[in-house]
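Input record, target 12 of the design panel.
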């Protein structure tokens, strides 16, 4: 029979790995929806859909409403709005199979850095893993290869910014009280949705009152498909966030940040099977190294 602390570690790994795969599926749907409607609209719709799901789930999983839960949950909503907008935008540009792992690596390093500042130290395996991860980033995004589907500089910068914001989101959620239940996530979604709704309205207003005489570039908008894909994205993402919060309650921030950084696996699988994205052998090696680095960091 497993001791309580050993059982907590096993549960953390299971919950974190499951959350990662679900996050990957949500990101794939977010990128897909952003090809039909704007990333801002996708963020608003998915946030509202997630808010409904979390409110319904809070009936079965009660939590204490406190100023700390609302404050850190709300701040994480701001970080989340920035992260998801940048992520969906860069995934819409593509290729998903390259940008998603880059975002994941950055999102894992930010909480690890926070842990180091708080006095946590990695083992030798952890430091080796960081070196492997850096090599993976180079192979995935910067190696010149005629066969490679290379992302643009704009997409790379958005992916890095998204990863940094995701890391901030995880740190803020981890600071919420242990007895808060789903309250921090409800605050997160409420602030996230409200913020992105304001941005969406402002973007529409700017577009309508634009005075330049050049003919604007048209963009194919498929509202019906985009709406339902965004709703599905928000529902799946809310589920993944609930698992993330559970994992943070069971284990450590540094471990969960690295486990959830495995989420590109879900995105890559769906992108390969549905979008038929092709990447070079060099980039496949980089992707494998990225996943190996994430696993090594979890062990460290």
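The sequence produced for target 12 reads:
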């Amino acid at each position: 029979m497993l001791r309580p602390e050993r059982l907590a570690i096993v549960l953390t790994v299971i919950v974190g790995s499951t959350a990662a795969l679900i996050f990957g599926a949500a990101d794939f749907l977010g990128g897909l929806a952003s090809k039909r409607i704007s990333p801002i609209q996708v963020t608003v719709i998915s946030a509202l859909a997630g808010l409904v799901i979390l409110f319904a789930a809070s009936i079965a999983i009660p939590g204490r409403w406190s100023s700390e839960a609302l404050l850190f949950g709300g701040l994480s909503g701001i970080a989340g709005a920035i992260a998801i907008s940048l992520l969906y935008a860069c995934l819409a540009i593509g290729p998903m199979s390259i940008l998603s792992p880059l975002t994941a690596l950055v999102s894992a390093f930010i909480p690890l850095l926070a842990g180091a500042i708080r006095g946590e130290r990695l083992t030798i395996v952890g430091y080796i893993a960081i070196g492997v991860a850096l090599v993976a980033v180079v192979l995935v995004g910067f190696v010149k290869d005629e066969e490679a589907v290379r992302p643009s500089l704009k997409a790379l910068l958005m992916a890095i910014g998204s990863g940094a914001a995701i890391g901030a989101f995880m740190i803020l959620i981890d600071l919420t009280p242990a007895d808060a239940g789903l309250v921090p996530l409800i605050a997160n979604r409420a602030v996230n949705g409200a913020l992105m709704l304001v941005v969406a309205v402002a973007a529409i207003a700017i577009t309508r009152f634009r005075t330049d005489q050049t003919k604007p570039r048209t963009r194919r908008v498929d509202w019906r498909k985009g709406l339902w894909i965004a709703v599905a994205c928000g529902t799946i993402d809310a589920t993944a966030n609930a698992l993330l919060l559970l994992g943070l309650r069971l284990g450590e921030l540094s471990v969960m940040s690295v486990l959830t950084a495995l989420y590109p696996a879900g995105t890559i699988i769906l992108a390969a099977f549905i979008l038929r994205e092709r990447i070079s052998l060099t980039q496949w090696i980089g992707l494998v190294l990225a996943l190996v680095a994430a696993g090594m960091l979890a062990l460290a």
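The chain has one domain: 4-122+152-209+221-278.
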